[in-house]
Design brief:
Blueprint: H1 2-23, H2 25-28, H3 35-41, H4 51-73, H5 80-102, H6 104-111, H7 116-133, H8 135-138, H9 144-163, H10 171-198
Helix pairs in contact: 1-10, 4-5, 4-10, 5-6, 5-7, 5-10, 6-7, 9-10
């Protein structure tokens, strides 16, 4: 039930955002771009400039908080692989959120001569290594479909960006949908693991 609801919500969010941007790209398009990018381009700095970026960062930090805190709290009280799954996944989420919020890939690091593609590739590789390392821990569960959905949304976003083509859904809309699925997985799994570890039978 949870998985279906979250995936449906991600599709609805991506579709709605794509439609809104399409109605008036010049104005509503600033909502999905970093404020610095909007300012550089000389586009209108409306009050909602960068809102989607900030919303995505909040999602990353929510996932990071759930994963890292649950992983640390359950150390010694739950199987090590389960705690490591959440702890390392939370750290990957934190890196994603910091990059999104502080614009490392197209700001700080880019100014230091690090190509934007290199930074994004490093973050993507970190997420892929984490997912593959703990594949046996999350793929066997129904909630694992949320990570699959997140991966599919991210893949769509990368294809649109790299190929510079339109694939029905706006690039930033698919990123937001990916973060939604990713954060829902961390929230659901962290809550479940905490309930298991603190149940009377587990004491």
């Amino acid at each position: 039930m949870l998985v279906g609801s979250v995936v449906a919500a991600s599709v609805a969010a991506a579709a709605a955002l794509t439609v809104v941007i399409g109605l008036e790209p010049e104005w509503y398009g600033v909502a999905v771009r970093d404020v610095l990018a909007v300012a550089r381009a000389g586009d209108p700095l409306t009050f909602y400039a960068g809102w989607v970026t900030y919303l995505g960062a909040l999602g990353w930090f929510a996932a990071a908080t759930a994963g890292v805190l649950t992983g640390l709290v359950l150390r010694g009280r739950a199987p090590r692989r389960r705690t490591s799954l959440l702890l390392w996944g939370g750290l990957v989420s934190l890196a994603m959120g910091v990059d999104d919020l502080f614009m490392f890939h197209d700001g700080v690091l880019a100014w230091q001569g690090v190509p934007e593609e290199a930074t994004m590739a490093a973050l993507g590789l970190a997420a892929a290594v984490w997912a593959l390392t703990f594949l046996g821990s999350w793929a066997r569960e129904l909630t694992g479909l949320l990570l699959v959905a997140a991966g599919a949304w991210f893949a769509h976003s990368v294809l649109v960006d790299v190929l510079d083509v339109s694939l029905l859904v706006h690039e930033e809309a698919s990123k937001l949908a990916a973060v939604l699925c990713w954060t829902a997985w961390f929230t659901a799994v962290s809550a479940r693991e905490l309930r298991r570890a603190t149940a009377p039978a587990a004491r």
